[in-house]
Design a protein that fits this description.
TPR repeats: 21-54
Pfam families: TPR_10, TPR_12
Shape: flat
Number of helices: 5
Number of domains: 1
InterPro entries: NLR-like (IPR053137), TPR-like_helical_dom_sf (IPR011990), TPR_rpt (IPR019734)
CATH architecture: Alpha Horseshoe
Structural class: mainly alpha
Keywords: TPR repeat
CATH topology: Serine Threonine Protein Phosphatase 5, Tetratricopeptide repeat
């Protein structure tokens, strides 16, 4: 369902629209929950880059994705990267 929503948002609003980016972040959460950590990281990175551009570094939505990346990095054993995110 997230893939379907993402395709629709990208078509309607483009890849950098904030609604598209929220779906990208949600897809990252799903991938992390499924243990697909590499895919999750790609989704989080994409969402983070877009959110930083759209909302800035300190917006709560941007920080939600920063936190998600921190959790992911900790799960991957990338503790230095996790610490930077947290």
């Amino acid at each position: 369902m997230y893939q379907r929503a993402l395709q629709g948002y990208e078509k309607a609003w483009g890849p950098d629209h904030t609604s598209t980016l929220e779906t990208v972040n949600n897809l990252g959460i799903l991938y992390a929950d499924q243990g697909k950590l590499d895919k999750a990281e790609k989704m989080y990175q994409r969402a983070l880059q877009g959110k930083e551009k759209a909302w800035g570094l300190e917006h709560t939505s941007t920080l939600d994705t920063v936190n998600n990346l921190g959790i992911l990095y900790a799960a991957q054993g990338k503790l230095d990267e996790a610490e930077k995110m947290f």
